[in-house]
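User: Sequence recovery, please. Input:
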């Protein structure tokens, strides 16, 4: 058992815990406060109360979780807090598909709309790994979006080792799925050194990165435009070791 690769991950856990505490504080705050700030004229407006009132549903929270950033823990917290804080948490099915077609996005928006209407609890929250979906485009008000992010290098390392360590028993696999071939390398550093396709980001390809969870399902949100992202990551991993 090599402990070297585990150490950066343990440091990541500390950072994650801090992020989680911040997220929960923010949730508790938004749950109990009304929007008070009036919109400021001119300048760049961070917060526009009228816009929120017109376009957002303040009693619906949507955690469209970025993978490998501690989202499992945050979902657990949402479930623990629901009774105490007077809201209901609902887990959306289908955790595999993050990129949706126009029709699939419409179905997602409708599903959330229906479940909000059926809910006996007026305040509800949802979670699902899915790219940012614009509810307004489908004639619905926007929910309050919530997410959790993480240092991109830590995230990439986490995904690399997770793919090796966790067979995900019981997880739904899409039809036609075959288990990947055994990995060539045991450490991310090694993988980067050999520029293995498994840890290489190529121009014109798309990968399940963080940006589309905030940007959307469009091509320009999902594709890598510059391979330099790889050089940036490789440089930082090397410096750490
Ligand atoms: C959502 O879509 C509406 C209408 O298509 C557009 O006006 C709005 O800017 C979009 N919002 C975001 C956050 O993309």
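Assistant: Recovered sequence (241 residues):
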């Amino acid at each position: 058992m090599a402990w070297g690769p585990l150490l950066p991950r343990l440091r990541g856990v500390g950072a994650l815990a801090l992020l989680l505490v911040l997220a929960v504080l923010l949730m508790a705050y938004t749950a109990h406060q009304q929007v008070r700030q009036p919109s400021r004229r001119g300048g760049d407006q961070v917060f526009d109360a009228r816009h929120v009132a017109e376009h957002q549903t303040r009693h619906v929270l949507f955690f469209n979780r970025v993978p490998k950033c501690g989202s499992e823990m945050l979902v657990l917290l949402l479930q623990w807090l629901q009774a105490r804080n007077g809201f209901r948490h609902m887990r959306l099915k289908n955790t595999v598909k993050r990129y949706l077609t126009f029709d699939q996005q419409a179905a997602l928006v409708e599903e959330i709309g229906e479940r909000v209407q059926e809910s006996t609890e007026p305040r509800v929250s949802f979670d699902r790994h899915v790219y940012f979906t614009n509810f307004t485009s489908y004639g619905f008000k926007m929910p309050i979006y919530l997410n959790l992010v993480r240092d991109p290098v830590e995230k990439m390392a986490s995904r690399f080792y997770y793919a090796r360590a966790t067979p995900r028993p019981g997880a739904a696999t899409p039809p036609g799925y075959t288990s990947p071939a055994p990995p060539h390398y045991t450490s991310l550093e090694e993988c980067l050194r050999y520029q293995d396709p498994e840890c290489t980001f190529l121009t014109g390809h798309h990968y399940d990165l963080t940006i589309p969870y905030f940007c959307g399902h469009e091509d320009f949100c999902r594709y890598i435009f510059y391979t330099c992202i790889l050089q940036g990551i490789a440089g930082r991993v090397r410096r750490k070791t």
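The CA atoms of residues 34 and 158 lie 38 Å apart.
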